[in-house]
Each structure stands twice: as C-alpha cells, then as structure tokens.
From TrEMBL:
Signal is among the record's keywords: no
Source domain of life: Bacteria
Protein name (Swiss-Prot/TrEMBL): HAD-IA family hydrolase
Taxonomic classification: Bacteria, Bacillati, Actinomycetota, Actinomycetes, Kitasatosporales
Keywords associated with the record: Hydrolase
Molecular function, one GO term: hydrolase activity
Transcription is among the record's keywords: no
Species assigned in the record: Streptomyces macrosporus
Length: 242
C-alpha cells in the first residue's frame, strides 16, 4: 500500500527532553536556591530513578498507589500533572513549590531539543506532499514547542491523548490521526520509539517504523529512512512498505 500520510510520536522520536540534572538546575536557578556541592547531582539522580521527568526515564520502581495512575497518566492534563508531581515528591527537595516548578519547566520549549534530522525529514515529507500528524501520549499542549523550534509549518495535525481521553496503543488514537490527515490506516506510517505504545498502530493496519530512544547526540539520523520508505512504497506500485 502506498504511504500517503505519516504519524510521528513526539518525545524520544522528534524531540528529546533535557537531561534531568539540567532540568533541576534550571528550576533551582530560577528559584534562587543554592545547594551544597554535589547535592544537585544527587537530587537529579534520585529524581531520574523516581521517573519524575516527563519524557525522561520511566520509574525504576512504582509505589503501589501509583501503579494504576501511571498506566492512565496521559488521559487528562490534571492526571498527568498529579502523577508526575507525586513521583517527584518521592525525592525531598528544599522547597515545596519546586515540585510544581519542575513540572512547569518540562513544558517549556527550551526544555526540548529536536533530533538532528527532525527538521530535514519533516521538510522532505512536506516537499513530497505527504501530510504529517504528531500523535502523542501527553498531558499538555506541545504545539508551542513545535512553533518555538520552527517545526510547526511541517505538521498538519496534532492528536494528543489528553485532548481525546485515549492513549496509545489504543486503536482509536491512531484512527483519529489518520482521519485528521484524510488517509486510511493502511496508507499511514507510524514512526515512534515505543514498541508497545507506537507499534500498537499495526493493529489498525498502519505500517510502523521504530527508532531508538536515545539522546540527540547519539541518534543523528534515526529518522532519515522515513522519506525513503515513502518513496519505496510509491515505487512499488502501491505495495505495502516493509
């Protein structure tokens, strides 16, 4: 089947959130909090272990009372904030207001960095006339991030879990994205980094291309095969791309 639309995951696919220690330092600096030598690094390591940074590492161990909320965290903005601030509160910080400040920081455009090939690949799809949707399990509006990084001109639709109350790998979120692009699931390619959430699009009939969830400097060209997959699907006379 010819690929006529491409769906992209956000975090770990198109952009990467800043490292946990950078995240924490930015918030401490804004709050005017000065810690003893080594304490910021220690707290950052504890926050990373807790999984407190959205888009960062998953919790290494979830307390029993957060296991179900964690599974459902992307269905609403309030739920997303509650879960991640609860994870952060597992780490004692010097001021109580820092927990909400940390959550607020991760939504700012400067907390995100596009992968080296993101703009190139999105631009190549635009040149080919292939519409793009961003499909994300998320609890906040990421559109300002795309605008700040000059990527919004390449995106035709955003399908965000918290706006629809559904989350990947549920088929409905991929169906909504395909409908937004005016393509059938069999004509769509889903590109993501999560073998469970993103690969769920295959159940609806989408092709799937997975990339590695790595820091930006360790994944310079993970997205570059995508335009070639589109071209190959066209060259093969409508046969489904591998």
């Amino acid at each position: 089947m010819t690929i006529r639309g491409v769906l992209f995951d956000f975090s770990g696919t198109l952009l990467r959130v800043e490292p946990t220690e950078v995240w924490l330092r930015a918030v401490l600096d804004e709050a005017g909090v000065v810690l003893p030598d080594g304490e910021t690094a220690r707290l950052a390591a504890a926050l990373e272990e807790a999984g407190a940074l959205p888009g960062g590492s998953s919790p290494r161990a979830l307390p029993a009372d957060l296991r179900e909320p964690w599974r459902e965290r992307d269905r609403s903005a309030a739920h997303h904030r509650a879960v991640y601030t609860a994870l952060a509160r597992r780490v004692p910080l010097p001021r109580p207001e820092l927990y909400d400040a940390l959550y607020d920081r991760h939504m700012r455009p400067e907390a995100w960095r596009p992968y080296p090939d993101t703009a190139e690949v999105l631009g190549a799809l635009r040149e080919r006339g292939v519409p793009v949707a961003v499909v994300s399990n998320i609890g906040w509006d990421l559109r300002p991030v795309f605008r700040a990084h000059g990527l919004d001109r390449h995106v035709d639709a955003y399908v965000l879990s918290y706006e629809h109350g559904v989350q990947k790998p549920e088929p409905e979120i991929f169906r909504l994205a395909c409908a937004a692009l005016g393509v059938s699931p069999e004509e769509a390619l889903m590109v993501g980094d999560d073998r469970h959430a993103d690969a769920g699009a295959a159940a609806l009939g989408c092709s799937v291309h997975l990339v590695d969830h790595l820091p930006c400097d360790r994944r310079p060209d993970g997205l570059r095969p995508v335009p070639a997959l589109v071209d190959r699907s066209r060259a093969h006379g409508g046969r489904r791309a591998p």
